[in-house]
Write a structure and sequence with these properties.
about 20% strand
């Protein structure tokens, strides 16, 4: 899988660029009917995520990484 399917990248779910903590990433958010939320990010340029904190829990999973 080189990218998420197009239906997952609908413009209405895109997180604004000024809300990003790292350059070159693109994020999308989905809000559940029960108040839960899922966000996912793509980073086609690579790099290191900038250190940051939130007032809520955050979990991260790397789905695919290019190490070249």
């Amino acid at each position: 899988m080189n990218d998420f399917p197009e239906f997952m990248k609908h413009p209405s779910n895109k997180i604004a660029a000024q809300e990003q903590f790292s350059k070159g990433i693109e994020g999308y958010v989905f809000d559940g009917a029960d108040g839960s939320q899922v966000a996912y990010w793509t980073n086609p340029v690579g790099g290191i995520s900038a250190e940051h904190t939130h007032g809520y829990d955050e979990y991260m999973v790397v789905v695919q990484a290019n190490t070249t």
